[in-house]
Amino acid sequence: MAEPLFSVRGLKVALPDMTRKPLIGRAPLAEILKGLDFDLPRGSVTGIVGESGSGKSTLGRALVRLLEPSAGKVIFDGRDITHLPEAELRPLRRNLQMIFQDPMSSLNPRRTIASIIAAPLKQNGLGDNLKARVAEALQRVGLPQSFAGRYRHELSGGQRQRVGIARALALSPKFVLADEIVSGLDVSTQAQILTLLEKLAAEMGLTVAFISHDLSVIRRLCRLVIVMREGAIVEASATDTLFEHPQQAYTRDLLAAIPLPEIDDAWLLPAAKAPA
Amino acid sequence: MNAPAKPCLDIRSLSAVLPNGLRVLRSVSLSVEPGEVRALVGESGAGKTMIGKAVLGVLPPSVRIVEGDMLLEGEDLGKLQPRARRTLIGARTALIPQDPLTALNPSRRIGPQMTDRLVRILGWSGEKADARIRQLLDEVQIRDPERVLKCYPHELSGGMRQRVLIAAAFAGEPRLIVADEPTTALDVTVQKQILRLIAQLQREHGTAILFVTHDLGVVAKISQKVSVLYAGKVVEEAETAALFASPQHPYTRALMAATPRYTDPFASLKPVDDKVLAGLAAEIAASDQAWRPPHG
Fold it and tell me: What CATH class has B9-104+175-247?
């Protein structure tokens, strides 16, 4: 079991840069990820943190192969999936699930909650006993059974995110990508969703990549952290190590920029640069 | 302004309803003293932005104020004719919005957008407005004002756009600025720079700020006083230092326990207790029952 679930080597992703696209012809490629090396150990929650434009979402999408890397290797569960064609990826997809940032746009408004959760089950040949499976998924995320017949707009933000989690976990996947799943929620709801994900990850032994811009949330949930900046890894280590002994100036800056809910008159004073 | 005791903004028992009779503001009272930052904190739907809009006179047409007074430097806004009220609000207040991209006109250059307000609302000459804007751009530490003034909004980064709007807000020397979640869309490192900038300009210009935010971390850093809102009701109000030292209302305590704190991961991020929510619901119901909508 020492073999990691994901093993990533020299991962590069280049995407067309539409801001530099000439009127006629192809847009030039911009390198978004500039050669990443890391492992995601089985059964662990790894936080991926960075500011906007750091490439954290692109990395997530490359892991679940919504994007095809331009160079490097992505080994999932012992299998090289870097350039696997869609037809061969399909049977693996049930093990590569995703929870999205905005459940309002990732849940179909015209389908009931039950049919949203049932869709991936049917796709993967688990169409028998659907009702019971959906009921189990709802119960797992703490939603009452009566929600099965409801629609997206009848739910609060936190409840919608629970549905997103229920759908992703219905297939008992090996890997879940959670991309900024609490950033649109109020703090009280955010705490509930994180507690739920924490519990389910432990119970089901999930391997989770938790993308967030919020280091406070990451510290609570994750065992390992990868700090990204401009498409490269700045620092990667065990969570406690990273927070207690950040090695890189950038990580220290990120930590110092978080406004803690405590009175600190010096915080707003013009930059007295911290010792490097 | 000779009477120092007069608050810059004084809201007394303000209630507002939707067409279906639902109360969205529940007898809200709060004041902002000259040169002071008051934070308005609450979760979505708490009515914090609504209060900001009421002050600026830009409530959506469906929201009707049914009770209460708003005094801007002692002048009762409700007693003024609409035109006089708009002029007064335009001259003495300004807004720093949440999303600079929607607040700026995408098809106009930054320069004219910034001077327009000074010329059209405050009646300044073009040259005076121009000089003033350049001075403010310098104060918000924009190093190349010539380039920025000629830019379109999309050519600037989020942090730069927010700097531009801060400069525009302070340019007319307003007495009161309503800052509506001005850093919510920004990365933490940029957020820190912007908060610093707002605090610095606020001190130097002696401006009062009504600072709307959902983040208790931001409240702790920027404000001197704070009002905690839930469902359009002020559940607690205090000096900021006192609120953090000893929060009184169960909801305030729950909110603090829910706010993430990387220094103390396991004492923070606590879900809000159902008992707290039930208590709040009862409190709201009781205050609604005691309240009679005034006629007329």
Answer: alpha beta
